[in-house]
Amino acid sequence: MKTATAMRTTACAACCGLAGVGAFLSAPSTSIVSSRNNPHTSSPWGNSALSSPLSLVGGGSGNARASVCPSPDGDGEGESRRDAAVKGGVRRHGGGGGGGSGGRRHRAATLGNLDLKPAYRLFDTVPPPPSTDATVRKSDDIDLDVDGDAPYDIDPFKLASEDLSPFTDTIKELVESEHPVLSMAAKHFFEKRHGKRFRPTIVALMALATCDKPMEAHRDSEEYTRQGQLGQITEMIHVASLIHDDVLDEAEVRRGGMAVHKLYSNKVAVLAGDYLLARASVLLARLGDVQVVEIMATALDSLVQGEIMQLKMDPDKLLDISLYLRKSYYKTASLITNACKSCAILGGHEFDSDVATAAEEYGYHMGLAFQIVDDILDIVGAADVLGKPAMADMSLGLATAPILYAAENAPEIKKIVKRRFKKEGDKEKALKAVLAGDAVARSRELARWHAQRAVDAVLRLPPSEARNGLVNICHIVLTRNK
């Protein structure tokens, strides 16, 4: 039987290899575009591009440039912030083929000039001091109230359900393999325990919220078909990361059921995750937009960086909440962030347009809020509700927001964090410290701040049911109990 270290090495190597596939796909080349809607599905989001006829179109030119990211222990130097800081309001970009039409794209995208900084370098990670917070609140802004009802009388999951109805069956077709065991392992999360399809729902609503035509007209468009395929790609990448994470963490359950590696084996689980990433990479290439390929490839890169950062962080930096949030961005928020931005680009908006930037900022803050709440629930939630063991993060030696806040003025808890909860009784002492003070309340406030920033960002988009659904998702994230 493999040791835990060997299992981690195998899974990390697999992830890194597939991240390389994504990076390779972002290189300038002839790109591929899928055909129109599959006539056998009722929704363009049921279209399976991997089984569609293909046509070749001219690709971009120029040299692909990888984004600069810090070293896993947080020492690396990154780029400066984008010159035009995003602090509310709108910016007009008519260049790059936009023709002065509010950032719309009228040509095939090219590589070589993308400013692909990680989103945590573009947007605030923690609340700035009150005296320096330049965000101007407007009279029509919405303040999230975790103790009250959602801002709008809209169920975002129901709103997107029509588009996602064939979603699961289509993905199961996409991941079909000649090897039955590999097929079963890859399809595991797309069977009964597929969850709420959180990420595809966000992509579907963002596609409708960023369009400049009536909702039903956009649903019949080629752009929406490609945005639907982006939703499939996003979910496949997410599920692959879950399968690999469970191997790395030696987890036994996921979503209330057995983890893939427990049902099959570590080798099959790693290969199933690899296979999902490979299929997602092919589908990504067939979107025919080199900007989107590069943006989504960086999400693969971020997933691997987050895992390495989690495994190899310097013990002296385990108490740094900014590094905790950076890791949370890499492992959770980056995929949502890049999917939201890519969705706007596939809808015809320029890379640096107001719409694409608002979509990116929404995904960034909402993704971080989601992870912070997840970390709170890991400590205070019940295992039978969560569908996984409680205090799983501490069992893995990980200090999350509640622990970090509890450790600020508690030398003993700081020592426990630095030794990664390895001594008997460490978890119990840390839990007691969290529950005795205001650590949970401060963590919830941090999550609320990020969710509020996500709402502020999406409200820069034109009013629509889809936009309101995205606002309500932020309320759902803050008030969820599992």
Describe this structure in words.
By secondary structure, the chain is mostly helical. It has a single domain, classed as Orthogonal Bundle (Farnesyl Diphosphate Synthase), CATH 1.10.600.10. Helices cover 54% and strands 2% of the residues. The chain is built from 20 helices and four strands. Strands 1-2 form a two-stranded antiparallel sheet. A hairpin with a 2-residue loop joins strand 3 and strand 4. Helix 1 (4-25) packs parallel to helix 10 and helix 16 (401-407) packs across helix 19. It is globular, with a radius of gyration of 22 Å. Residues 1-11, 17-42, 49-102 and 131-139 have low confidence and may be disordered.
Short description:
The protein has 482 residues and is an all-alpha fold.
Protein topology:
Elements: H1 4-25, E1 31-34, E2 54-57, H2 156-159, H3 161-164, H4 167-174, H5 180-186, H6 198-209, H7 215-219, H8 222-249, E3 253-254, E4 257-258, H9 260-263, H10 266-285, H11 290-312, H12 321-346, H13 354-380, H14 383-386, H15 392-395, H16 401-407, H17 411-418, H18 426-436, H19 439-458, H20 465-479
Antiparallel strand pairs: 1-2, 3-4
Helix pairs in contact: 1-8, 1-10, 1-11, 5-10, 6-8, 6-12, 6-20, 8-10, 8-12, 11-12, 12-13, 13-19, 16-17, 16-18, 16-19, 19-20
